[in-house]
């Protein structure tokens, strides 16, 4: 497909006409059960170590609202409300045909042109993966050490180093890494990023937090490790997107907003789950809760810090300003994103701003507009509000960066096979698994694509660079290695599909097809395998038999072949 910055081609118009017909057919088949009347239907994002997707309802919060929404003054960013008499797909087609995105017209190391990232004037094909750890890991003991995984979940000496891992990752074809961090990662000398248990570490660096072997990971703290990562990546000509992954290393993936507060979505998870974080908050909280206070001012200061340090590291492609902001309305989040862009532009005009979407609901509003109810967005996936309230950020500086996942992360209602059992309509998660003999799932491209188009794909057609910030999954789910026992049992009735692929990998293949068809780039979650709901590009053993669990094995060539096909390699 040809994506033109200034006008739609006839092919693009035809595409959106087809989308309207596809969604109408999907709605007739699936109904409006993609999101229940409860916030429980809000899809969740990916998690690392022992955090996995939860079907626990999101409950009302007393968290203070974000600062009042600023008036958008740029004429380019003002859009009249979509015609309510039109279907969502027809509204999108009308918007795409008429909207003219703003441009900065400035020069810098990184820019966007014709929907593609440009580096020093040349198109940069973004072949990206996530490598996490520095944002803080959640352990059953209550610790949250900020330390990069380089070879083993329990940091045994595997002979691996950051340097040789980076070389191997580059050799696989990756040229960009999304690096999650927390606000605490940016604090020089923060105790959660210090303290080797290795007896061979220097006396002044010994402590109780870090588990990597000092000789393989010789950093005084998490900040130094982050700088070392940027330098190592630069030596391999690998670009880095720095992702502010949470409001605190102790809250992690749960946050959803800058001043996030408990209860968290995994508060009541069973399965002998030991990784809850009800004792930590980023906003005002009651007695007995440790508050790592975070707010808009601190967040903008962190963005300034990252922008300034990136001046010394020209391989930093941009800042992913906050991970999966599911607990905002689109209007609130758009206002914050615009403030972040102004800080980046002021302090480092070479960088791009990566902006994620919201979700299908938040703690206050059960339902955020996201198009047809038949398809519910993941945390970070929903850009549907852009039509009513476009981002006042120049198109040549902005990267749209949604997240989306299959059933290994969350079993959405629109995955269910209603042809087989119509009574599964609107069911998701445990409710669907336990319904009768268990709802079946079906991963058909024509059922999945309309949701992706409504949630973010239409912006690609407007010429916006689109780089999926996270997607992936455990290709063995639910009956193979790595699935939680309760999920493996609940979904054991699922049968393999074409090519004997388990159901999550069927979803991954369909999304890979979409990326290739629409010429959309992405960051796969994850490169390292310590994510309990997705695994990684590197494989590892799943038997919990001590420290051998989590040991990096060889590369998962099935996943890599899929990625190389998307990359055109």
Automatic annotation (TrEMBL):
It is an enzyme of class 3 (hydrolase). Its EC number is 3.2.1.4. It catalyses: Endohydrolysis of (1->4)-beta-D-glucosidic linkages in cellulose, lichenin and cereal beta-D-glucans. Keywords: Carbohydrate metabolism, Cellulose degradation, Glycosidase, Hydrolase, Polysaccharide degradation. Residues 137-530 form the Glycoside hydrolase family domain. InterPro entries: GH, Glyco_hydro_5. Pfam families: Cellulase. PROSITE patterns: PROKAR_LIPOPROTEIN (PS51257). GO terms for molecular function: cellulase activity. GO terms for biological process: cellulose catabolic process. This is cellulase. Belongs to the glycosyl hydrolase 5 (cellulase A) family. The lineage of its organism: Bacteria, Pseudomonadati, Pseudomonadota, Gammaproteobacteria, Cellvibrionales.
């Amino acid at each position: 497909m040809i994506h033109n910055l200034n006008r739609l081609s006839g092919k693009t118009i035809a595409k959106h006409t087809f989308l309207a017909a596809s969604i109408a057919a999907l709605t007739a088949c699936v109904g409006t059960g993609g999101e229940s009347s409860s916030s429980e239907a809000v899809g969740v994002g990916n998690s690392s170590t022992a955090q996995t997707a939860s079907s626990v309802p999101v409950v009302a919060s007393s968290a203070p609202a974000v600062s009042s929404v600023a008036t958008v003054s740029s004429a380019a960013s003002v859009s009249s409300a979509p015609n309510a008499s039109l279907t969502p797909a027809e509204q999108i087609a009308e918007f795409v045909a008429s909207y003219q995105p703003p441009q900065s017209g400035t020069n810098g190391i990184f820019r966007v042109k014709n929907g593609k990232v440009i580096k020093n004037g040349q198109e940069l094909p973004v072949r990206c993966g996530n490598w996490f750890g520095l944002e803080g890991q959640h352990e059953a003991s209550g610790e949250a050490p900020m330390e990069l995984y380089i070879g083993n979940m329990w940091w045994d000496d595997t002979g691996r180093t950051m340097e040789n891992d980076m070389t191997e990752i580059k050799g696989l074809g990756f040229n960009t890494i999304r690096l999650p961090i927390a606000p605490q990662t940016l604090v020089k000398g923060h105790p959660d990023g210090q303290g080797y248990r290795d007896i061979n570490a220097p006396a002044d660096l010994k402590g109780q937090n870090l588990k990597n072997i000092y000789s393989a990971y010789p950093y005084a703290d998490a900040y130094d490790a982050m700088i070392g990562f940027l330098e190592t990546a630069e030596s391999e000509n690998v670009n880095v997107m720095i992702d502010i992954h949470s409001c605190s290393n102790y809250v992690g993936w749960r946050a959803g907003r800058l001043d996030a507060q408990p209860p968290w979505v995994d508060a009541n998870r069973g399965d002998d789950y030991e990784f809850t974080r009800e004792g930590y908050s980023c906003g005002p909280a009651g007695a007995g809760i440790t508050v790592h206070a975070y707010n808009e001012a601190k967040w903008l200061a962190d963005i300034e810090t990252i922008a300034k340090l990136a001046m010394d590291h020209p391989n930093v492609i941009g800042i992913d300003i906050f991970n999966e902001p599911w607990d905002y309305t689109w209007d609130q989040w758009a206002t914050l994103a615009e403030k972040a862009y102004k800080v980046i532009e002021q302090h480092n005009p070479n960088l791009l701003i990566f902006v994620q979407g919201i979700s299908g609901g938040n703690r206050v509003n059960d339902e955020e507009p996201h198009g047809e109810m038949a398809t519910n967005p993941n945390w970070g996936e929903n850009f549907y509000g852009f039509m009513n309230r476009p981002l006042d950020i120049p198109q040549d500086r902005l990267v749209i960066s949604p997240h989306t996942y299959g059933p290994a992360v969350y079993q959405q209602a629109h995955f269910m096979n209603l042809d087989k059992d119509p009574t599964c309509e609107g069911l998701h998660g445990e409710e669907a698994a336990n319904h009768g003999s268990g709802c079946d799932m079906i991963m058909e491209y024509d059922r999945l694509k309309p949701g992706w188009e409504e949630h973010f794909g239409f912006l690609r057609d407007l010429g916006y660079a689109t780089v999926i910030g996270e997607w992936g999954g455990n290709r063995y789910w639910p009956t193979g290695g790595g699935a939680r026992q309760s999920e493996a049992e609940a979904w054991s009735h699922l049968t393999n599909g074409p090519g004997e692929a388990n159901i999550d990998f069927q979803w991954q293949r369909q999304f890979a097809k979409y990326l290739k068809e629409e010429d959309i780039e992405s960051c796969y979650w994850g490169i390292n395998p310590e994510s309990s709901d997705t695994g990684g590009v590197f494989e590892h053993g799943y038997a919990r038999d001590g420290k051998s669990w989590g040991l990096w094995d060889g590369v998962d060539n099935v996943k890599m072949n899929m990625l190389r096909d998307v990359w055109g390699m």
